[in-house]
Amino acid sequence: MSTAEKLSIALTPELTADIRQAIATGEYASTSEVIRDALRAWKQVRQGRAAAIEGLRGLWREGVDSDDDAPLDADDIKRRGRERLKALEASKA
């Protein structure tokens, strides 16, 4: 098991109250548990962003390597983007 390092952090009164409330209701046993859980969630978000960025980089490389120099039609690109957005919004409804 790794050793723990003690850190000191400053939180807003609102965050402090939220942490105390979570402990008072039994959702968490300690402030350390709240912070560890929050940091795990933060780490997952960061990893998700990094994966998304790497995916975009891969698509970019694929596009650059494709040697497709066909001219782009801005109106067509906008139309297809709007269609995709509309479909995405419909799937969430």
**CA-based gyration radius:** 23 Å
The total strand number stands at 0
Give the helix/strand class.
Answer: mainly alpha
The average pLDDT score comes to 94
Describe this protein's structure:
It is elongated, with a radius of gyration of 23 Å. The chain has helices spanning 13-24, 31-65, 74-92. The chain is built from 3 helices and no strands.
Question: What are the key terms here?
Answer:
mainly alpha; elongated; 93 residues; single chain
What's the short story on this structure?
This protein has 93 residues and is an all-alpha fold.
Helices and strands in order:
Layout: H1 13-24, H2 31-65, H3 74-92
